[in-house]
Specification:
Blueprint (H helix, E strand, L loop, with lengths): L2 H8 L2 H25 L9 H36 L3
Helix pairs in contact: 2-3
Length: about 80
């Protein structure tokens, strides 16, 4: 089980819902940015294709968050070791 999944499993449902909403919003923003960057519009894609693009971006964002959590944990452990903990 990943760190992120473990954290979310312990969180109240309201926190889980807010997390999912924020990730979805960020993913939609990133997809829109990518469409503009590639001179495309939403009309160039079917609903299924847009759903796949958003889902892929959500996966990327979740991976970034996992890396951030891991980095923070490693940094905290390193500080503890250096401080003689």
């Amino acid at each position: 089980m990943s760190v992120l999944t473990d954290l979310l499993s312990k969180a109240p449902q309201s926190v889980k819902d807010k997390y999912k909403i924020k990730i979805r919003e960020k993913a939609i923003e990133k997809v829109k940015e990518n469409l503009i960057k590639h001179n495309k519009t939403i009309d160039d894609y079917t609903d299924d294709e847009m759903g796949e693009l958003i889902a892929a971006e959500e996966g990327n964002l979740n991976e970034d968050i996992k890396k951030g959590i891991l980095t923070t944990l490693l940094l905290a452990a390193g500080i503890e070791i250096v401080a003689g903990g």
